Amino acid sequence: MPKEPVAVVGIGQTRHTAARRDVSLAGLVREAARRALDDAELTWADVDAVVIGKAPDFFEGVMMPELYLADALGAVGKPLLRVHTAGSVGGSTALVAANLVAARVRRTVLTVAFEKQSESNAMWGLSLPVPFQQPLLAGAGGFFAPHVRAYMRRSGAPAAIGSLVAYKDRRNALKNPYAHLHEHDITLEKVQASPMLWDPIRYSETCPSSDGACAMVLTDRAGAARAPRPPAWVHGGAMRSEPTLFAGKDCVSPRAGKDCAADVYRQAGVTDPRRQIDAVEMYVPFSWYEPMWLENLGFAAEGEGWKLTEAGVTELDGDLPVNMSGGVLSTNPIGASGMIRFAEAALQVRGQAGEHQVPGARTALGHAYGGGSQFFSMWLVGTEPPAT
Amino acid sequence: MPDVLSASMVVEFPFTRSLGPVQSAFLTGLRERTVLGVRTTAGTVLVPPVEYDPRTAEEIRDLVEVAATGTVTTWAWNPAPRRGQPLATPFAWVLVRLDGADTALLHALDAPGPEAVRTGLRVRVRWAADRTGAITDIACFEPDEGSTPGHRARPHSGEFAGEAVTGIVAPARLDYTYTPGRAQSAYLAALAEHRVVGERCPRCRKVYVPPRGACPTCGVATAERVEVGPRGTVTTFCVVNIKAKNAMNDAIEVPYVYAHIALDGADLPLHGRIGGIPYDRVRMGLRVEPVWPGPGAGRHPDHYRPTGEPDADYDTYKELL
């Protein structure tokens, strides 16, 4: 029996910001979930199961928050699952929800991801003082900056590429009312003049710390037929993982990312992603990861990704727009960031992306990664239902 | 197993919480010696209150005041209180249904011994002398045999004189005993002798430094010890210009170079700081050697410094990036 086609019929997110002191964690996830239900014109009673995700419990210090959030998400008396794959978790969470529908285990699933970084301390949560280890940790930027340098050496990319990405994403964010950073006076010169934090990564090439939540309603073919607005159809979805460090790991272009993309493309019948995919929303917490992931995801040959960025191909009005929402560079509630990528891909093919809509987008990729380039999750969504 | 290291590890952080409207009213009420609950769509009074109806998922904001007296619905004796618990002497954990409420609140009961506690016991709140808007504003419960149930919940606006409590600080602390295991212990013992000893995977023959006792790609145990280095090559690096919010790093002045260093004979780089050279002259391919720490400064190299050898050719380390 073929899989049940999965449709995204509701999308909701909070207006992401540095600190949402007016709401509890429950209030925050509720806001996104309520908006997703409203978008789908459904009620809590229409939901068969809830799948939620966030970054590690240490971040906010709430053990098993999924238990406490059951009331707020209408999950009482229903299955409630929590997914846990570091920064990629928002994407993995959506895929677990999609699989419940595809397997005909549930008909309509609410999926939610969140983070309240203002009430958490990611740096602390990731830098526990483990005895006998060297106290050398330099934060996420310090962890990823050497990989960026390795990419620059390997590809021969000009030093300005990172600033082009940041300038583009911050301008895209100005068109997205939900984005955290709205830097109306942004210029390329300002990005390039911003302080070098972890050379070669500049301040303006890093993501902010945000409070936010994102939610989606996924449903089957019958649910999609009742939907008030055009659905986004899931054409492929996959997760892959690999160790953070191992002999032979390619830290610039991890094997798990390539394999994950290949699996998604195989499911969707995509043989030439550069031509067949209209828009990409990828997880770029540091600007240089745009060209790195363009190669890892098969949009450019190895060492060539930066040329797409440099030529303006990834601009909102380019041939292959990347991070139309403003991306992680403009909004980063860590646990939600992966789902925001997946949701943006769905918004684009539904034609609901507002000012940052790519005209005529019919196929879009949502991508997330997490840990030390250790977890990958992706989905490809389209305007038309998948051929069965 | 000889010489496996072990040490205590404390994980501790003061988390902040925004309360939202219902918890804000509840904790502000405690400060003012008032216990608030919330009425659900079906009329049930929940204490402590929640923001969303557990049955219907509807938002509920219908606050009510309940009594400071109630009835124990179940209990467990705690003979050995731990740090941070409500009372320092043995006490009973109790679920108390306050008069006017339909659900029970978890708290501590001050009682001389387990024989003095029973389900159905009448109790009352003992308020803390200093109240700040926290669950600890209820110091504990105490027996109150003379009181009678029958109090009805009364509507309450949730508003009180004085500033509302909108956030709390919730300190969290976990105490672990950490052991790095056999392979890491042997690695650390060798470091103390200024030697770097990794382990070779019997299947893929890759040398892991530091060793983990198992090969992460082959999934087999590793045991063959291989001395590597001490010299190595900087494969890549960054210049750290800001201090991490991590007390363990505070001694390191910025800027400093955080590098991946492939020791000669190792099949993946380890991480270290580069010194003995201006930070802006560090480069990929730089040949380095460890500078061992002074007495009492740990076992790991303090940093790595240039050896003076010519730089390694890119092709010799490009597979290690």
Automatic annotation (TrEMBL), chain A:
GO molecular function, one term: acyltransferase activity, transferring groups other than amino-acyl groups
Domain Thiolase C-terminal: 244-372
Domain of life (superkingdom): Bacteria
One Pfam family of this chain: Thiolase_C_1
UniProt cross-references to PANTHER family, sorted A to Z: ACETYL-COA C-ACETYLTRANSFERASE, NON-SPECIFIC LIPID-TRANSFER PROTEIN-LIKE 2
Protein name per UniProt: Acetyl-CoA acetyltransferase
Organism: Streptomyces longispororuber
UniProtKB/TrEMBL annotation, chain B:
Domain ChsH2 C-terminal OB-fold: 64-127, 226-292
Keywords annotated in UniProt: DNA-binding
SUPFAM superfamilies, sorted: Nucleic acid-binding proteins (SSF50249)
GO molecular function, one term: DNA binding
Record-linked InterPro entries: ChsH2_C, ChsH2_Znr, NA-bd_OB-fold, Thioester_dehydratase-like
Residue span, ChsH2 rubredoxin-like zinc ribbon domain: 189-220
Domain of life: Bacteria
Official protein name in the record: DNA-binding protein
Taxonomic source organism: Streptomyces longispororuber
